[in-house]
Design goal:
The complex is a heterodimer of chains A (154) and B (505). Chain A is α+β, with helices and mostly antiparallel strands. Chain A is built from seven helices and four strands, in the order ααααβααβββα. In chain A, helix 1 crosses helix 3 and helix 3 crosses helix 4. The longest helix of chain A has 12 residues. Chain B folds into four domains: 94 residues, Glutaredoxin; 200 residues, 3-Layer(aba) Sandwich (Rossmann fold); 91 residues, Ubiquitin-like (UB roll), CATH 3.10.20.600; 90 residues, Up-down Bundle (de novo design (two linked rop proteins)), CATH 1.20.1440. Helix content of chain B is 42%, strand content 15%. Chain B is built from 22 helices and 16 strands. In chain B, strands 2-1-3-4-5 form a five-stranded mixed beta sheet, covered by helices on one side. In chain B, strand 3 and strand 4 form a beta hairpin. The chains are: A alpha+beta (154), B alpha/beta (505).
């Protein structure tokens, strides 16, 4: 057993909390992720057994949705919108800057997402789940530092 | 006497500091001994002015914006609480041309009321539609929706009343109403703003629909990128249920999949499975969620229903042009000076939207291209600005209305890259069920790269057109079927961008 990974009993405890209408593969995996931070490999069999489906079906869902992750989340989760409305105001440049700036930082993960619904105030991004609009290089660096210090600052 | 100050709770406003502004206003007013009450309203939709702070005065609400945290002290010094002059003062909100020139029907209350105050909702005309509907037999409600001319606002534009009749006539012990709030198109945010700014309107629309089609449960499928909308809806559902006018409705959170905005993929996702598209028939109206009859509508379609019932079908039908009746909530974004929400009757020109309301580009450079209708919509050249914004006119112009989003690009845009992105996006988000979409999108990227690199360009352009035809004709849903639209429109209107390497050499 890997350190820090929940036991099958702990996974089963999470699944036992599911209301009847959420005893389905996707809501079950979302519940595991809410509780653990991600969906460890060790969760696949308990989910399959509890829901009476095959492991293949569980892995199928787990690998389908962008939100579900199979490794622990980073300390700093930077998501930049890479869709058209943000492209029109410099999202491509921002992404290449961010990737270059934070590529060495092991605590940072940079991901591209498609549309955060903040299209009139782009480029938009999320840092540890917080939506930020009108991003530029300076503001992004500030927000990252603020998030590192555990503050919210916008 | 306490002064009411409005600071939006809309997530776009929060993304540029509305929470900090609200907190500072409260704290600094307190140290000055000012008696203020802060109401967190929805956004008025003038997003370039966010955070837009409004002060209630005897003559009406006075607006200030965009207010940065640093402005709070100088605003209070100037006498914000009495609506005093200040460089950020915009005058009476209701007099602002941007708002005055709109026809807000679905968005009538957004930005005006506290989104979770049911008394205010009632005072501003809420629940009038549901009260009328509850006194009508289902057939009459369906007839009313049919007569209104309401068409699906999610993109397909199918007449809503026909869907309602089909579901109503289906025999079943269980029937669902599913609201599709998986608003994934870039350049669209109206669903989000309605859910955050006036959730009761959506819930009232669902209650009316449920009554008409005999639904036993309502489900709202909201994308995970909208956590504020999810929270607001869940609270609104509790309030409405406690008040007694809403039955079984729950919110289901998506998990990051664009194609789940396609109705059958959404149903699969609601069943907890991979969000893969189902072949049609059977249509969801007859065999939808868990095989039961299901009325699936976009947020804006259901959001239009309360006013159709409250004001009557003929009043709604009187707005708009040709077969596009009522209002459309247009969303202007991208490289635009004044981005936001414009609700008005169908038939406004694209020019009035982007040059009138939008005031041109944010960069100040000339407009070069406009993408109308989301990532699957056509790129139109600036010469198309006079097109009428309705379903048929846009189709005739080679585009589509989609969910009413307009993304503006200035003359620095590289349309070769935009065409490539359409294929990249399709490759990233394809559900994988059908081959033209799954494989075609990847081949599309490769072919476009060869064209852009000048490798055997003429033959590769022919190949690209053939690939686009295959995707259009052979894909199961709009994802693969419409991805060629931005690609082919870019090729048609901006051919020079596919020949740049030659010029450089």
């Amino acid at each position: 057993m890997r350190p820090g990974v929940p036991t099958p009993a702990e996974i089963n405890a999470v699944l036992a909390q599911l209301p009847a209408e959420e005893r389905l593969i996707l809501p079950a995996l979302q519940a595991v992720q809410r509780s653990v931070g991600y969906v460890p490999e060790e969760a696949v069999s308990p989910v399959a057994e509890q829901l009476n489906v095959s492991r293949a079906e569980v892995v199928g869902v787990l690998t389908y949705y962008h939100d579900l992750r199979t490794s622990p989340p980073p300390a700093l989760d930077i998501r930049l919108c890479g869709a058209e409305a943000c492209q029109a105001v410099g999202a491509r440049y921002l992404r290449s800057w961010v990737e270059a700036r934070y590529s060495e930082d092991v605590d940072v993960e940079v991901a591209t997402v498609y549309c955060l619904g903040n299209c009139a105030l782009g480029p938009a991004g999320q840092i540890n789940g917080q939506l930020i609009g009108q991003l530029d290089v300076e503001r992004l660096a500030q927000e990252v530092e603020a998030a590192r210090e555990g503050k919210t600052n916008s | 006497m306490t002064v009411t100050i409005y600071v939006p709770r809309d997530s776009a406003a929060k993304s540029v500091g509305a929470d900090v502004v609200a907190a500072m206003l409260a704290a600094h007013a307190a140290t000055r001994g000012l008696d203020i009450t802060i109401v967190r309203n929805g956004s008025r939709g003038m997003l370039w002015l966010e955070p837009l702070v409004e002060v209630e005065t005897a003559q009406g609400r006075i607006a200030y914006g965009p207010v940065r945290p640093d402005d709070v002290d100088s605003l209070l010094d100037a006498g914000l609480a009495s609506g005093a002059q200040h460089p950020l003062c915009l005058g009476f909100t209701d007099d602002l041309p941007w708002l005055r020139e709109q026809n807000r029907v679905t968005f009538a209350r957004v930005g005006i009321i506290d989104p979770l105050d049911l008394d205010q909702y009632r005072e501003h005309g809420g629940l009038g539609g549901l009260e009328r509907a509850r006194a009508m037999p289902p057939e009459e409600i369906v007839a009313e929706v049919l007569a209104s001319g309401l068409r699906g606002r999610g993109g397909a534009g199918f007449p809503a009343g026909i869907k309602w009749r089909t579901v109503m006539e289906a025999e079943s012990d269980v029937t669902y109403v599913c609201c599709n709030a998986d608003e994934g198109d870039s350049g669209t945010f109206a669903d989000r703003m309605l859910m955050e700014g006036d959730p009761f309107t959506l819930l009232e629309g669902m209650a009316i629909a449920a009554h008409a089609v005999g639904a036993t449960e309502g489900i709202i499928y909201v994308r995970s990128e909208y956590p504020d909308a999810i929270e607001t809806l869940r609270t609104a559902i509790e309030i409405a249920q406690e008040d007694g006018w809403l039955d079984r409705v729950r919110v289901v959170e998506g998990a990051g999949s664009y194609v789940c905005g396609e109705e059958t993929a959404m149903l699969e996702s609601l069943e907890g499975k991979r969000g893969m598209v189902r072949p049609k028939p059977p249509i969801p109206a007859l065999e939808g969620l868990f095989g039961k009859p299901t009325l699936v509508h976009n947020v804006l379609t259901l959001g239009a229903v309360p006013q159709i019932l409250a004001g009557g079908a003929s009043a709604y039908q009187a707005i708009g042009v040709d077969r596009s009746r009522g209002t459309q909530v247009f969303q202007i974004s991208g490289n635009v000076a004044r981005g936001g929400i414009v609700e008005t009757g169908f038939g406004i020109s694209l020019r009035d939207l982007v040059e009138g309301f939008g005031a041109g580009t944010r960069s100040g450079r000339p407009i070069r291209a406009l993408q109308v209708g989301g990532p699957l919509g056509a790129y139109l050249p600036v010469e198309s600005l006079d097109v009428s914004m309705d379903y048929e006119s846009l189709a005739q112009a080679g585009g589509l209305l989609g969910h009413g989003g307009v993304v503006v690009f200035d003359d620095t845009v590289d349309m070769g890259l935009q065409a490539r992105f359409a294929m990249e996006f399709c490759a990233a988000e394809s559900c994988g069920k059908c081959t033209p979409c799954r494989i075609g999108s990847v081949r599309g990227i490769e072919v476009i790269d060869r064209v852009l690199n000048g490798e055997d360009r003429e033959n590769n352009l022919v190949l690209l057109q053939e690939l686009c035809e295959t995707m259009t004709d052979g894909s199961l849903c709009a994802m693969g079927g419409l991805t060629p639209l931005p690609v082919q429109s870019a090729l048609e209107y901006f051919p020079e961008d596919f020949h740049r390497l030659d010029e450089a050499n």
